[in-house]
Amino acid sequence: MDHTDSGGGGLPLSVGQEGLWLLHGLAPDSSTYHLAGGVRMEPAPDPEILARAVDAVTERHPMLRSVYADTEAGPRRHVLPPGATGRLTVREVPGAGDEELRRLVAEEVATPFRLTDEGPFRAVLLHRGPDAVVLVVTHHIATDALSQWLLWRDLLAAYAALAEGGDARLQPPATDFDHFVAAERTLLESSRGARQAEFWREQCAGSQAAEFPTDRPRPATPANKGASLVRRLPDALSERIRRAAAGREVSQFAVALGALQALVNRWTGMRDFLIACPASVRRSAAREVVGYYVNPVLIRADVTRDATLGEVIARAADRVRQATARASYPFPLVARDAGADGPLYRISMTMVATDRFDGGLEVAAAGEPLQVAGLTATYLEIPHLEGQCDVSLEVTRDAQGLTVALRYDTALFERPTMERLFDQYVRFLTAAVDDADRPVGRIPLTDGDEKRALLALGGHPGAVS
């Protein structure tokens, strides 16, 4: 189990964590790698009880009370005693309207972490009076998507137990993140690791990062600023995607990725390109551990205009199977070994399935309120992880359907461009399940109304019926 470091050499980081530590050092004020989630609670929770619940969570998960430092042996993690960091901050905001509340949330999410002394976790109560927002912000060096839901499950469970006069102490997980770090080092020193390295070198050779045409020139130094568009797909479309995936014996992710690959081809003409797909490398034994168990894997596309969407999806599914079987090889080493002049990816896509959550959180992820110790708690989608790459698509699959978050670099793209891209992606998703035998080159990028508007701008109104 993770242990409290008492001034020794500290605990080694995973390769992925080392990469994030390096990025933090280059841009310590950036919020690009902040994860955030919030819950609106009505009536407002008891601040003292909530503070004790937060303490119980940080006691159970040592990663949340870790600080980081450079040493002669490389970057190291030091675990602080419970209560030393990560305590609840209460901000009284009586009378604040919803817009003001959103501004305060955005301000908290954007506040930099001091990983050397503050650690990678903070919890904030924005107390309005009749209701409140409980906000949790973490740095990616310590968590991933599943870890965020573990935090919320444990926090709400601890609050409920304390509010009902019980004990909030949570049992420590059966394993810890150090086991993952040790297993990764064993892999890298093995023949299996060498075979995986060779696979990734071949996967990257001769290909290039997919990228959409930008509205503005790419700055010499990344701005690391972004924005998000979040939309829930129509329930009927989500159900057709589920059925189409089952009928083709592929995952829903493969359908969604194939539609994106086809859209990239239509926007750019690129045929051979790479898209990154963050993959979980968490084993079942670590299900209860908060940590950075994610690794971007590169999916190489081969898309031609005469290929059907069904063919593109089948290829995507096959490439995803090959890549995820080798997902444990750290991406920073893939990038190093590839020796490319620029980034290996500028577009990423991931899918999070909420059926892995428990404690009622699958329902919460779909926007349904939970009852916690007599309070109504509604999960809030809060923009985060913006500006990591040009464009990223994050698909959340819950019990009711699919929600898509499109995050983009605001230094490169205007919002109308991304809204158009989002609309066209949904159009390609629809074609993927309703008309998968249609060639990629024949999928319309605009609907009838848009065509008429474009033709009218060109002086040909009414040319399209």
From TrEMBL:
Condensation domain sequence ranges: 11-455
Highest taxon listed in the record's lineage: Bacteria
InterPro entries: CAT-like_dom_sf, Condensation_dom
Pfam families for the chain: Condensation
Protein's UniProt name: Condensation domain-containing protein
Source organism of the structure: Streptomyces prasinosporus
